[in-house]
């Protein structure tokens, strides 16, 4: 993998001693759809602005296709940005907006015109070339911003929550469109979002960030199925956590004794007997049944039932302090598995049980 | 709901407000009306006529004073607006300038200094450095006191402007000066025009400072009007004042309208 963007021990401290990025290391591959995902204030925009050149790093190295670009001003970096609120030039037409970067690069009029037309065609806005940005809908402005940033053929395209200002339906169709644009153009996309669903749906790889630190980097299924720590597990989707100690290790798997009572068997992760661990599983991995108390089953009391349309969430009390959520697909007959207050059995496939680092 | 119960109705307030409007505008209306009086009297109406306007426009002294006023106002406006624009850009955009609110405050503080104090200070200062440039002296003085007036609308416009537009331009390979030329200045233009018009009117109307620093031969229109009034109010004075008033109203209104225009 040639790396499009490589950051090494990158630090950003804002005036007033705000550390927005703590010694981050990251390699983004060429032609990758890479997503920075994390809660508000975790430093996503900061990292993007560092790559674009709007901020200077406090320490660390930033390179683009092998060249150190840490000291280059934004206009010298072959990187373009799609801003969160589009930032289209209000006094210029759609055409002039898209042509702006090309003109600055000194392209001839004929050349620029052809390129702008190709870009507008790519985002289906050919008929809107003469309009001013204020005469466009949010989704159209969004696509102009994309066309404008793609027109000069940047080596890397940065997108800062480009879909957050759109309504749900439009957001969903733009997801597909962005993905298509990335594949069609072959440009590396660095996409920022705090929406985990968006990240999972679009990305080749995801970096999960929290409080200025990169928590985990991996492809969507690795992030979802094998989170390395509790933060990642909780941030991406819903999660159940159980405190336990290692009871028995055999070649076929390890048995964990839950603090709340009962045992669960899971894959061996090289933990020593007696060690305290945090177990984790996703709500949809477990199944519920009325009866039975076998291996990898836990008896719980139904506390709450949330009907979600395509599925139903059961909130189960294992003991006074431990609540587990199990998500069960709603099948055709629509019968409820249990009522509130009833006892029920939760079964978990050993392969779905994860042991977290902390 | 009856009036006495309506919380929005306060006894007597509307009369005071009305009284204020009468006091504010009655003198102006009288001045304008009598500028069209056919007789010399400033109190008795004797029919409509443009006589005083014709006389005023034919008067060499008035022409000279008006020309001086306009020359001073044009140069002072250009200089003040340019400086105010640069100051506004520096004070709102330059990250390296510390204590920007303090500088901003200091810049508009002269608006609160009594004009007579500024006038005396300017006169003393010019005398001390031996500056004697005729109209030039007045232009310099006007430029200085026009800067805060030009600064305010420009700064307001700039503060309402999205900084990410300039970032976007730089991101698209525009250098700093290209960004200034293609993005910042065009978007700032309503503020600049508004500030320039304000500066122009302030310069045109100024009396106290001009009186202090004006040398022989650099009489401006307000000073000339004052010298006429000392001899006695004539409809000719009314006519000149009406022209000045009309001009001011038009320019200030335009300045306001342009300043408001496409505020995005
Ligand atoms: N110019 C600045 N000066 C000082 N602190 C800043 C500045 N910009 C950002 N910060 C701080 O740095 C941290 C990271 O900010 P950043 O904008 O990168 O977050 P983010 O992940 O993009 O959040 P969001 O999802 O809300 O956009 C925050 O604590 C923020 O308050
Ligand atoms: Mg952000």
Written account of the structure:
The complex is a heterodimer of chains A (358) and B (264). Chain A has 358 residues and is of the alpha+beta class. Among the domains of chain A are: 1-78 and 192-237, P-loop containing nucleotide triphosphate hydrolases (Rossmann fold, 3-Layer(aba) Sandwich), CATH 3.40.50.300; 240-357, Nucleic acid-binding proteins (OB fold (Dihydrolipoamide Acetyltransferase, E2P), Beta Barrel). Chain A has eight helices and 20 strands. Chain A is elongated, with a radius of gyration of 25 Å. Chain A starts with a strand and ends with a strand. The mean pLDDT of chain A is 87. Chain B has 264 residues and is an all-alpha fold. Chains A and B meet through strand 6 and helix 2 of A and helix 7 and helix 8 of B. Adenosine-5'-triphosphate is lined by residues 14, 16, 18, 20, 38, 40-46, 194 of chain A.
Query: Which structural category do the helix and sheet elements of chain B fall into?
Result: mainly alpha
Distance between the termini of chain A: 31 Å
Tell me how many strands of chain A there are. 20
Level of helix content of chain A? 10-25%
Uncertain residue segments of chain A = none
Q: Could you give me the name of the CATH homologous superfamily of the largest domain in chain B?
A: MetI-like
Q: Tell me about the biggest sheet of chain A?
A: 6 strands, mixed
Biggest pleated-sheet summary of chain B: none
- The side-by-side strand order for the widest beta sheet of chain A comes to 6-7-8-3-9-10
Task: Note the run of SSEs of chain A as H and E.
Answer: EEEHEEEHHHEHEHEEHHEEEEEEEEEE
- Using only C-alpha atoms, the radius of gyration of chain A works out to 25 Å
The helix-and-strand class of chain A reads alpha+beta
Element pattern of chain B in H and E? HHHHHHHHHHH
CATH superfamily of the domain at 1-78 and 192-237 in chain A: P-loop containing nucleotide triphosphate hydrolases
Query: How far apart, in Å, are the first and last alpha carbons of chain B?
Result: 41 Å
Shape of chain A: elongated
Instruction: Give the DSSP E fraction of chain B (strand runs of 2 or more residues).
Output: under 5%
Please give the CATH architecture of the domain at 1-78 and 192-237 in chain A.
3-Layer(aba) Sandwich
Largest interface: A-B, 23 and 19 residues
